Amino acid sequence: MKVPNIPADHPNMTFKASLMSATELDRALKRIAHEIVERNKGASNLALVGVHTRGVPVAERLADLLHKFEGTRPPVGKLDITLYRDDLTEIALQPIVRRTEVDFDVHGMRIVLCDDVLFTGRTTRAALDALIDMGRPASIQYAVIVDRGHRELPIRADYVGKNVPTSASEIVLVKLNEIDGSDAVELWERD
Amino acid sequence: MSSMQQRSTSDTDPRLNQATTARSSARTVFRNAHLVDGTGDHGVHDLYVKDGRIEGWDLTVDSSAIDHEIDAQDRLLTPAFVDLHVHLRDPGQEQKEDLASGLAASAAGGFGTVISMANTDPVVDEPGLVADLVRRGARTPGARLHPAAALSHGLKGDALTDFAALKEAGAVMITDDGIPVADSHLMRRACEYAAELGLVIQTHSEEPALRADGVMNEGAVSRKLGLPGNPDTAEALMIFRDGELAHMTGARVHIAHVSSKRGMEVAEWLKANGAPITIEVTPHHLTLTDDSLTSFDPLFKVAPPLRTTDDVAYLRDAVRRGVVDNIGTDHAPHTRAEKERDMLNAPFGISNIEVCFPLLYTELVLKGELELTNLLHLLQAGPAAVMGWTAPSLAPGAPADLTLLDLEHSAPVKGVDFRSKAKWTPWEGQSLQGWPVLTMVGGRVEFDRSDLAQAVSI
Amino acid sequence: MAAVPAASRPITIPNPVSETPREGSPRRGRKQHLLDFADWTKDEVLALLDTSDVMAQVLTRTIKKVPALQGLTVATLFFEDSTRTRLSFDRAARAQSADVMSFAAGGSSLTKGESLRDTLRTLDQLQADLYVVRHPAAGVPYQLARWTNAAIVNAGDGRRAHPTQALLDAYTFRNRFGGNGAFEGKRLAIVGDIDHSRVARSNIELFTKLGAEVALTGPTTLVPREFADLPGVTVTNRLEEAVEGAHAVMALRMQSERMTRGLIPSFAEYVARYQLTSEVMKLAHQDAIVMHPGPLVRDLEIASDLADGERSVIEQQVANGVPTRMAVLYTLLVGQK
């Protein structure tokens, strides 16, 4: 049995299970795209904003799908939420701050925030703050590939690829071709 | 305790006449002491002291007649050192140092006699102030104190003080040390007057306008740090002036703390051409360079400033060649708060009297740069000769001013253990070898390193 | 049991508090202070410039504020007054939601000539996380750093260093010449009173570190000879020689006290030999920019028309002070533990 590569700088986790295959991931995104159209009664006035890092390819793929279904591709923005994190004074690693690229005016738009995993909800809160600091959207919806539970804030996702109950010591890794070279959703255990 | 004796006004060694409470009628013997003085290395002997003087070597004396026995354990016993240049800050600046702490610190450094500088508050420019220092010094344990008096009133450089009266009161040297004498005419008159009275004039030779507001040596380091610099030319120029005036007037001029190669070259030339000058160097100018200032620690801020490696090398060479007459510490204590100011505002000065010997022994003698006999000469016979005093010796009859040195003992410098109030020094933590372990002045032990109870009073 | 996935590129383990793996969050050499750039690597400086980009963008939004430094306190200690620089730091701190306390010279807390340690002891009661310090004596930031756990940013110490000025100058330069390779093989010319200038010293340090060359020119009395020995630095007393082919020409302030102390014979002579004019700038690189740390004295160091002209980036320099200082505060304060 071939064990997936343990990341070189973090040897302390073990692979546990595959949660979604590449095909399943693709299907989930298609379903989410349809749900977005249905909920918003079309794709007008819609924009997708991906949360760095893996939320960005999610947003791009959803935009491509919406283009296929509806004929127009909604604008896609990239949001870096580092400066909005609530844990900046506690962390040991200093995160690199990336540029936020939202080239359209958020005012009055229906924004679909896209991310890979919804966990405690803190990243989502930071993303909401960052987005609202840019202007006043008409509404903000939230799309994630995996909801793994353990919310610490009253946050919910509007569109979910898969609900996966997890324990605190587990890690959900969403791998995306654009970044990781392949598509997969995996469950790992921290040693 | 013997009663105070009258001072003589003759030019003989003042120590022969100066009474100190240190004079003791007790008999002490140093067993197995390795005796070294200006006349040579005399090997290991028992040295007897009585009535404040050296009684003799290897005498046959009944143990009942011995009050005090010190086992020297083959360590070096040598005449206590003489420092022509210390700042005791008393009167008026006792927060930095006072007679008690300063003279105790001197003894801890192996010094038996010190000359105190006059830039106190008030300035020592009146005979009454001199007499007061003499009186209080006699009563204070530690090294013997001979005050210097100011050359000009208030160190202002305008009007000469009354040299004769000052000498009468007990001043042994005239100096405006701290402040250069800017007016050459005044300096000339001072030289003429001092020559007439047989007084030594000590000079702080720095041309004021060139020195300006420099806080460190002017050079590559000062330009890199953007700190105002004090060029060696300021020193060289003034040494030339002071030496020329000495030559012109016949005054005995003692050039204090020569810090640079250029300054030393000028002094050397003057001496060789017959100027009656003597040359002093400090321990810090022989061991530290202006690179130290890159730490931005005002502990290294001193006047004249620390110079370059080339300067240090040349000074060492001059010491080796016998051009330098004495090593004077220029011990200049300041409070901790003062030395924690910024580089522009912190006062100049290094607290060094307690580490002078171990520093020079470690950095120069042990590294083969200087012979021990040379070092001892610069601390004993050299300074005595500058002042016209009898050379310190271990011969019977000489005053019992002795220091016992443990040349094998290595220890880190710990300012907190200093007797001086200024417990902050550039060499903090540095391991040095060759420490004075006991100092006797006039037959009385004024410093004993093993005496932990001998805490300094603050 | 699910099929084992194929081997893929290594992923970093997420920080326990965050939810998703954050790619590219390497452990960075944690810098505690910005006293000068002596112990900063070229990459660390480039990272500061990249972060400045992000910060510049924050300042273009409707809400020009992020909560990154919320709950942290920045104290400005200006023993030497400078409203402009102090306000620039103030803005940089507030834009990241930090609290700011200001102490100015002449106030009861900051008396020149007092023990720095004692001054700091009093201020430390206020528990600032970072001190921005400007002082007329070189080395004060180093001294303060010995006596506090707070971070120290040097806002100018004597003539020695002014690192954030150099940073905003480098940022301005990079914005014109593009990207992180912007500095290699390029030349910065600095004109004027180099000896008395902490701006000059810091720019020499920073631009050479980033791979550029620096040419210094000015009256001989005001340009230290030893600087020619520094790597990447040339010294000339001819303005034309320094400006020729330069990508940026920076004029320094000429203060009147230099004249009273005999360092320059007169302003007229300085203007004749060292003033930057459009004519002289023809010798520079075709895209060359004109810089000045301010405040500018018109028609002294720079001819008026040049100061207002296309090549001048002087106003941008001032504007760039805030994002670069934001980047500095962020870099020193975040990830503190």
Provide an overview of this structure.
The complex is a heterotrimer of chains A (about 190), B (about 450) and C (about 325). Chain A has one domain (about 25-165): 3-Layer(aba) Sandwich (Rossmann fold), CATH 3.40.50.2020. In chain A, helix 3 (about 120-130) links the parallel strand 4 (about 110-120) and strand 5. The model of chain A is unreliable at about 1-10 (pLDDT under 50). Chain A has helices at about 20-40, 55-70, 120-130, 175-180; strands spanning about 15-20, 45-50, 75-80, 110-120, 140-145, 160-165, 170-175, 185-190. Chain A is an alpha/beta fold. Chain B is an alpha/beta fold. In chain B, helix 3 runs parallel beside helix 4 (about 165-170), helix 5 (about 185-195) crosses helix 8 and helix 8 (about 230-250) packs parallel to helix 9. The longest helix of chain B is centred in the middle third of the chain and has 18 residues, at about 230-250. In chain B, strands 1, 2, 3, 4, 5, 16, 17 and 18 form an 8-stranded mixed β-sheet that branches. Chain C is α/β, with parallel strands linked by helices and about 325 residues long. Chain C contains 12 helices and 9 strands. In chain C, the strands form 2 sheets. Chain C has a 5-stranded parallel β-sheet. In chain C, strands 2-1-3-4 form a 4-stranded parallel β-sheet, sandwiched between helices. At the A-C interface, strand 1, strand 4, helix 3, strand 7 and strand 8 of A face helix 1 and helix 12 of C.
What's the short version?
The complex is a heterotrimer of chains A (191), B (458) and C (337). Helix content of chain A is 26%, strand content 28%.
Chain-wise SSE layout:
The complex is a heterotrimer of chains A (191), B (458) and C (337).
Chain A: E1 13-20, H1 22-40, E2 46-51, H2 55-70, E3 76-79, E4 110-118, H3 122-132, E5 139-147, E6 159-163, E7 170-175, H4 177-180, E8 184-190
Parallel strand pairs in A: 2-3, 2-4, 4-5, 5-6
Antiparallel strand pairs in A: 1-8, 7-8
Chain B: H1 14-17, E1 27-37, E2 40-50, E3 53-57, E4 68-71, E5 76-79, E6 81-86, H2 99-108, E7 111-116, H3 127-139, E8 144-149, H4 163-169, E9 173-175, H5 184-197, E10 200-203, H6 208-211, E11 216-217, H7 220-225, E12 229-230, H8 232-249, E13 252-255, H9 261-272, E14 277-281, H10 309-320, E15 326-327, H11 356-365, H12 372-379, H13 381-387, E16 402-412, E17 431-441, E18 444-448
Parallel strand pairs in B: 1-4, 1-5, 6-7, 7-8, 8-9, 9-10, 10-13, 11-12, 13-14, 14-15
Antiparallel strand pairs in B: 1-2, 2-3, 5-16, 16-17, 17-18
Helix pairs in contact in B: 3-4, 5-8, 8-9
Chain C: H1 42-58, E1 73-78, H2 83-94, E2 99-104, H3 116-124, E3 130-135, H4 140-146, E4 151-157, H5 163-177, E5 187-191, H6 198-209, E6 213-217, E7 233-236, H7 239-243, E8 248-251, H8 256-260, H9 267-274, H10 278-281, E9 289-291, H11 304-308, H12 314-333
Parallel strand pairs in C: 1-2, 1-3, 3-4, 5-6, 5-8, 6-7, 8-9
Helix pairs in contact in C: 1-12, 2-12, 5-6, 5-12
